[in-house]
Specification:
Elements: H1 6-18, H2 20-26, E1 30-38, E2 49-56, E3 59-65, E4 72-77, H3 78-85, H4 91-96, E5 101-103, H5 106-111, H6 113-123
Parallel strand pairs: 1-4
Antiparallel strand pairs: 1-2, 2-3, 4-5
Length: 145
């Protein structure tokens, strides 16, 4: 599935909602997120990918393509997202190094670090097709996590 496609987002929602550990870590959270994967034309990523999701009490309630007003916005060049998904760069390190920019209540985001790490683990189980030069890092996925 192409990173950021509606099929991909629906797989993210299904896997996160089926993951007991993630649901426990996210319990009590009511948040919305926009993720911006910035275009990198020199690397074959011609258009930005903008997606979002909303969580209610630890479950993904909805996913969408495109821009919406949300509590948090996380943005980075496409390649930074690829590095996070392939395990080359941790999400927390990406934020502290300012390679992944955030908007929203930062301390609230940091409180959810363990939940974010689990979520990234779940993402790594989803077969994912990357664009441009990043195709070489496509994730075949697995059912374990």
């Amino acid at each position: 599935m192409k990173l950021g496609s509606l099929d991909y987002l629906q797989a993210v929602m299904a896997r996160a909602n089926a993951d007991e550990k993630y649901r426990e870590l996210a319990k009590g959270q009511y948040e919305t997120y926009t993720l911006v994967l910035e275009a990198e034309p020199k690397r074959g990523v011609e258009e930005p990918v903008i997606v979002g999701f909303g969580c209610q009490d630890g479950a993904f309630a909805e996913v969408w393509e495109g821009q919406r007003a949300t509590m948090f916005t996380l943005s980075a060049p496409y390649g930074v997202w690829v590095d996070v998904l392939r395990g080359k760069l941790g999400p927390v390190k990406a934020i502290t190094m300012r390679r992944l920019k955030t908007q929203g209540p930062f301390l609230q985001l940091l409180k959810g670090t363990e939940r974010v790490l689990r979520w990234v683990d779940i993402l790594r189980t989803i077969p994912t097709e990357f664009e441009g030069e990043y195709e070489q890092y496509n994730i075949t996925g697995s059912e374990s996590g």
